[in-house]
Every structure is written in structure tokens, then in C-alpha cells.
Design goal:
Helix 2 crosses helix 8 and helix 10 runs parallel beside helix 11. This protein is 49% helix and 11% strand. The protein is an alpha/beta fold and 439 residues long. The chain is globular, with a radius of gyration of 24 Å. The protein has an eight-stranded parallel beta barrel with strand order 1-2-3-4-6-10-11-12, surrounded by nine helices. It has 19 helices and twelve strands. The relative contact order is 0.11.
Length: 439
């Protein structure tokens, strides 16, 4: 296919495919073809995941997700019935980055850390699928699990300028991310959305990063779901006063670093959300409390100019939920958000909190009750099997049976298969735990 034919095909897709309705790019199909190279690599997991995620948010009342920080956490999410995985930069900073350090959420870790965790999660989900397929389960069978959950990953503020955002988006897609979000903070002093001291970049600079990310996805040939996050509800600093979109919120004050003070709040957040809406598939406004009235005001303002524009919401563990809401409101919170158009909802740090609490709880009991504490956990695992929990058989869970199948395929009479004769094979066969409790 000639360059011109490629460009015409791409332009036709942009013009006629409902997927791209209302999306601005700021560049031409010829620009994309010029940057692709002569051989286009197929990114199967990223493409399938992006298409699946887009279908989910367009057909479900809402899609709710938990932040995972490892492949094993994502596996359990799939087994438990969730339909998407969220990958938080905060969690990568805290305990899953390539520097091997524990950092706060301030973009201190190497920029390729999140793509590497995306790859790690996809590798784990792929292994689960291989195990299930090897064991003879097919799509449509009872108990079959679609392990290939779409992953929405955190690109923070892009780790620099538009070129950094371009390369980071490409790395995310290469690792198999389905959706990626970029925020409008200054990358060099980026903070968690629930910290102080946040500095915004001018609106036009944030838009340029969204254009950069979309260009990267188009060059890669993947319909990645692009989310734009604004921190303007709480951020009271901006790097420059040149952007007309920002001038209404300037106070006239400057800081010792040279930043300009702004008036944070829903007005500034809406202004930026409206500016980002033509360039992103979803808009996310980071908030300080779980406030349905605030969420409704933001949604209505966006939808007044961009009817049907999908929104995202961080159901953050940085909120003290019971302090802010009663039980009845908590129970209906996500349903009400979904009705407002918040189609993707997520708990960013779910993996961090579940990992730390569960280990602390076990360690606390073990320090005082010795083996009784672990056996209590093990019995809870046996009981959870009725709900689909399988990790109590940890050898099978990580693929020992799969690699036994590889061994016996190569050497039919191999005597070195690992699962047969293992303690798991002898002590954890089906029904054993129930028999022991009955005895």
C-alpha cells in the first residue's frame, strides 16, 4: 500500500468511524504515515484491550476498577470478576519502580517504570490464559475467565515536554496498555493529586501533550483510550500567564520561584476540562472529597458543550469515606456517578492498601499466635475457593502444571515433572480441605 493509500485509509477511518466522533487531532493523516516507518508492528494486546475498554465504557452503566501493583494482584481481580485493571503511578512510585526505591508520588522514578509494570501485568494475565487453555477450558465453558483485562495506566505529567509524552505513550502501547492518562501539572514538581504545592502548566501546553499522546497512538496504529486529567480544582499555581484560557483565574500574585498564583476550584477545573475535551476520550477532574454535588456540577458543565463526553472519577483512598458520607450514599456513590457520565471509576491505591493491611494483619497475628495465625489465613483461603479463589494451590497458580506440560511434550517419559508428587498434589486435592474440617 502506497503512502497516499495509507493516508486515505486512515483519514477515512477518522471521518467515518464512530470511535473518533468529536475528536480533534491537530495533524493530518499524511503526518502520521510519514512518522510510521515502512513496517508497522502489530500491538495485539494494546489493540484488543483498547477496543474492549472502549466497548465496555460505551455499553456498561460504568466500569469500576482497582489499582494493581503486580501481576498477581491483577490475576485476582480477573478471577474475582472485575473487567478492567488500573495502574497507578503512585503505587509504582511506592513499591514497583525500576529504581528499586520507595518514593512518594512526585515523578521521582525512571519514566519507563509504569510501562514495565504494564508488561508485567500482561505477562501474568497471559500466563493465566495459557494455564486455563492448557487445562482444556474454552470460551463459553462454565468457569472460563477472560483474563485479558484492559489496563488503564498512569503517565503522570508525561515526565517532560511533548517529546517525552510521545515516547512514553509509545512505551505504554508497546507494553500493552489499553488506556493512558496524562495530567496538567508541571512534570518537574509533579505531586499526588491529594498533596499541596501543585503547579499547573498553561492550558495550551497540556493540550499539546494530549495531541502528542494521540499522535503516538496513531503512529503505533492502536486506538488507545486517552484520558485527560486536570488538577485545577486544588492547584493554585501555574507556570505562566500567557494563556488566555488561564487569565481569568490569575490573582496577580507571584511566588519566589516565579510561579503565578491562581484561583483554584470548580471554575478553573471546568475551564480546563472544556479545553481538553476535544482532544481526549475521557475527562478526569481530581477532587479533594467524594462529593456527588461537585461531580454533578462538573459533569453538567462539560456536557453542556460536549454532550455525552465520557468522564472518569478517582474513588480515592485519600478520602476518609465514612467521615464524608453515610453508608447509604457510599453504597450508591458509583451508580450515581455512572448516571452522570463517569463511565470509568477506579480506586487508585487499592493494591497498596490491600497488600499492606493483609500483611500487617498476618504479621501481627503471627508474632503473637505463631502458626495459628497462618492457619487462620489458610482456612480462609480454602473457604474462598467456593467464590473462585485458586491461589491456595500456589504451585498451580504460577504455572507449574503448564511447564510440566511443556516438559512432557518435549520428553514424553520425563520423570522430572514438578507437580506430580508435590505436597500440593498430595495435600491440596479437591475436597481435602473440606474433609479435614469435617474430621
Amino acid at each position: 500500500m502506497s503512502r497516499q493509500e495509507q493516508a486515505e485509509k486512515l483519514q477515512k477511518d477518522w471521518s467515518e468511524n464512530p470511535r473518533w466522533k468529536g475528536i480533534k487531532r491537530g495533524y493530518s493523516a499524511q503526518d502520521v504515515v510519514r512518522l510510521r516507518g515502512s513496517v508497522q508492528v502489530e500491538h495485539t494486546l494494546a489493540r484488543r484491550g483498547a477496543e474492549k475498554l472502549w466497548n465496555l465504557v460505551n455499553t456498561e452503566p460504568f466500569v469500576n476498577s482497582l489499582g494493581a501493583m503486580s501481576g498477581n494482584q491483577a490475576m485476582q481481580q480477573a478471577k474475582a470478576g472485575l473487567k478492567a485493571v488500573y495502574l497507578s503511578g503512585w503505587q509504582v512510585a511506592g513499591d514497583a519502580n525500576l529504581a528499586g526505591e520507595m518514593y512518594p508520588d512526585q515523578s521521582l522514578y525512571p519514566a519507563n517504570s509504569v510501562p514495565q509494570v504494564v508488561r508485567r501485568i500482561n505477562n501474568a494475565l497471559t500466563r493465566c490464559d495459557e494455564i486455563q487453555w492448557m487445562e482444556g477450558k474454552n470460551p463459553g465453558d462454565e468457569g472460563y475467565i477472560d483474563y485479558f483485562l484492559p489496563i488503564v495506566a498512569d503517565a503522570e505529567a508525561g515526565f517532560g515536554g511533548v517529546l517525552n509524552a510521545f515516547e512514553l505513550m509509545k512505551a505504554m502501547i508497546d507494553a500493552g496498555a489499553s488506556g493512558v492518562h496524562f495530567e496538567d501539572q508541571l512534570a518537574s514538581v509533579k505531586k499526588c493529586g491529594h498533596m499541596g504545592g501543585k503547579v499547573l502548566v498553561p492550558t495550551r501546553e497540556a493540550v499539546s501533550k494530549l495531541v502528542s499522546a494521540r499522535l503516538a497512538a496513531d503512529v503505533m496504529g492502536v486506538p488507545t483510550v486517552l484520558l485527560a486529567r486536570t488538577d485545577a480544582e486544588a492547584a493554585d499555581l501555574v507556570t505562566s500567564d500567557v494563556d488566555e484560557n488561564d487569565k481569568a483565574f490569575l490573582t496577580g500574585e507571584r511566588t519566589v520561584e516565579g510561579f503565578y498564583r491562581t484561583k483554584p476550584g470548580v471554575g478553573q477545573a471546568i475551564s480546563r476540562g472544556l479545553a481538553y475535551a476535544p482532544y481526549a476520550d475521557m475527562i478526569w477532574c481530581e477532587t479533594g472529597t467524594p462529593d456527588l454535588a461537585y461531580a454533578r456540577a462538573f459533569a453538567e458543565a462539560i456536557h453542556k458543550q460536549f454532550p455525552g463526553k465520557m468522564l472518569a472519577y478517582n474513588c480515592s483512598p485519600s478520602f476518609n469515606w465514612k467521615k464524608n458520607l453515610d453508608d447509604a450514599t457510599i453504597a450508591k456513590f458509583q451508580r450515581e456517578l455512572g448516571a452522570m457520565g463517569y463511565k470509568f471509576q477506579f480506586i487508585t491505591l487499592a493494591g497498596f492498601h490491600s497488600l499492606n493491611y493483609s500483611m500487617f494483619n498476618l504479621a501481627y497475628g503471627y508474632a503473637r499466635q505463631n502458626m495459628s495465625a497462618f492457619v487462620e489465613l489458610q482456612e480462609a483461603e480454602f473457604a474462598a475457593a467456593e467464590r473462585g479463589f485458586t491461589a491456595v494451590k500456589h504451585q498451580r497458580e504460577v504455572g507449574t502444571g503448564y511447564f510440566d506440560a511443556v516438559t512432557t511434550t518435549i520428553e514424553r517419559d520425563a520423570s522430572t515433572a514438578a507437580l506430580k508428587g508435590s505436597t500440593e498434589d498430595e495435600q491440596f486435592f479437591d475436597g481435602h480441605a473440606q474433609h479435614q474440617r469435617a474430621a
